[in-house]
Amino acid sequence: MRKVVCKNCKKIFFTYHKLPRGVYCSKKCFLEKRSEVQKELWKDDKYREHMVKVHTGKKQSKESIEKRRQALKGRVSPNLGNHWKMTDEQRLNQSKSVLSGKAHPNYIDGRTPINKIIRRSVEFKLWREAVFARDDYTCQKCNQRGNILHPHHIFNFADFPDLRFEVDNGITFCEKCHRLFHKRFGYKNNEKQLQEFLLKDI
Asked: How many C-beta neighbours within 10 Å does residue 20 have?
């Protein structure tokens, strides 16, 4: 038995193992030290180039894939049966916490149009879902349920900013009917044009 000082935490312990296996007091210390060493290695440009060159284009063999599959066989995912349905408030909080917009290191002011920013926002997605749910995920023109649905602003998006997220200012169309509406009436639409469109046959 040898008396050894752990290379990671400097704890003194006794071991029967020979070097290099017997230089860490635990698996945790070994992994921490290995991670630290690997991080230092990857800072070296020559090492990075070498590793990229060595591993580029390589694929796992069928034997290796099968071996890994057998090792994982029978394991149950800890997330099985957990349906992560968040409340609207949780989704809003999550969207604020991620590195997006000005919080992101690659942010360039003015690159993304304000229209696109709004349509990608959580508020817009919640409005969209609320409109679909109210209309039972059914196109209000052709009565087709499901398929590709679009939320349409009754009073147009550009000229009525205060009504953008009002559920009553939205209506559900399928993709075909939505394109047809804007083809006939353009994008400066209103409630009168909508009523005309709904009453007429396609």
From this structure: 9
Residues 118 and 191 placed together within one structural domain of the fold: yes
- With CA atoms as reference, report the closest residue to 163 among 200, 118, 120: 118
pTM summary value: 0.47
Any long-range contacts for 62-68 (C-beta under 8 Å, 24+ apart)?
none
Tens digit of each residue's pLDDT (9 = 90 or more) over 103-151: 777 777 766 677 788 888 888 999 999 999 999 999 999 998 888 999 9
Greatest pairwise CA separation for the chain in angstroms: 92
In angstroms, rounded to a whole number, what is the distance separating the alpha carbons of residues 98 and 131?
Answer: 26
Residue 177, Cβ density class (10 Å: 0-12 exposed, 13-18 middle, ≥19 buried): buried
The domain in which residue 127 lies consists of 113-199
